[in-house]
Specification:
Chain A has a single domain, classed as Roll (Thiol Ester Dehydrase, Chain A), CATH 3.10.129.10. Chain A is built from one helix and eight strands; from the N terminus they run ββββαββββ. Chain A has a six-stranded antiparallel beta sheet with strand order 1-2-6-7-8-5, covered by helices on one side. A two-stranded antiparallel sheet of chain A has the order 3-4. Chain A starts with about 20 loop residues before the first strand and ends with a strand. In chain B, helix 1 crosses helix 4. The longest helix of chain B has 15 residues. Chain B is globular and about 40 Å long. The mean pLDDT of chain B is about 90. Classes of the chains: A mainly beta (about 140), B mainly alpha (about 90).
């Protein structure tokens, strides 16, 4: 485990209850892997399932942590940025409370402080979502 | 060179899903970002991917990117130059 839940907020601008990532598990070159457990008190849980936009947020936050850890841009004391676009989104299912989702991120392209990344979210061996996100670090 | 420029236009339309635009509508020297084709700066990332995916050339830094992603002409010139270097 590279970055744990206790320190993850040093790498993203979000604060509870909007933190949608627990740990950075792996990082190798342009690949990152994170996990996140869906707790019952997550504000984006509805009818026992995590909502779609929270899963997109998980992919975006996983990307941010991976990029910050890999020092892909000149990080300030506190990382800031925004999600510029979400595309090629496919949703196959939603995680339920107490699931631990795993998110795999691949950096596809970088142009200065702009990043195009592909994310896939899984629970056990079932893929739940995939999409591409464009992040801008400011 | 004209074939390459036409291919680039077709690839940009396809990758950026520019509905209602035909290759003939894109001028060789028109700005791709902002006025002209109307792409935003984040769309430039797609152009970086397109250059690598279809033409095997990489943009390694922002300064080169700004020059290369200016127009169809500059993109085509970059592809030709990079391929010449590789041979």
């Amino acid at each position: 485990m590279i970055i744990t839940k206790e320190n993850i907020q040093d790498y993203i601008p979000q604060r509870p209850p909007f933190v949608m990532i627990d740990n950075l598990l792996e990082a190798s070159g342009d690949y990152f892997k994170t996990d996140f457990r869906i707790l019952p008190d997550n504000i984006f849980v509805e009818n026992g399932k995590l909502r779609e936009f929270a899963m997109i947020e998980n992919i975006a936050q996983s990307s941010s942590v991976g990029l910050a850890n890999a020092k892909k841009y000149s990080a300030k004391e506190k990382p800031e940025g925004y999600l510029g676009a979400v595309s090629k989104l496919k949703l196959y299912g939603l995680p339920v409370v107490n699931d631990r989702i795993h998110t795999a991120i691949k950096l596809i392209a970088q142009l200065d402080n702009m990043f195009l990344l592909k994310g896939e979210t899984w629970v056990n061996d079932k893929k739940l979502m995939e999409c591409e996100v464009k992040l801008v670090a400011v | 060179m004209e074939d390459l420029k036409y291919e680039l236009k077709r690839q940009i339309i396809e990758e950026l899903k520019l509905e209602d635009i035909k290759p003939e509508d894109i001028q060789d020297d028109a700005p791709l970002i902002g006025d002209g084709l109307g792409l935003d700066s984040i769309d430039a990332l797609e152009l970086v991917v397109l250059l690598e995916k279809y033409h095997g050339v990489k943009i390694m830094d922002e300064e080169i990117g700004k020059k290369v992603l200016t127009s169809i002409n500059t993109m085509a010139d970059f592809i030709v130059e990079e391929k010449a270097k590789a041979t």
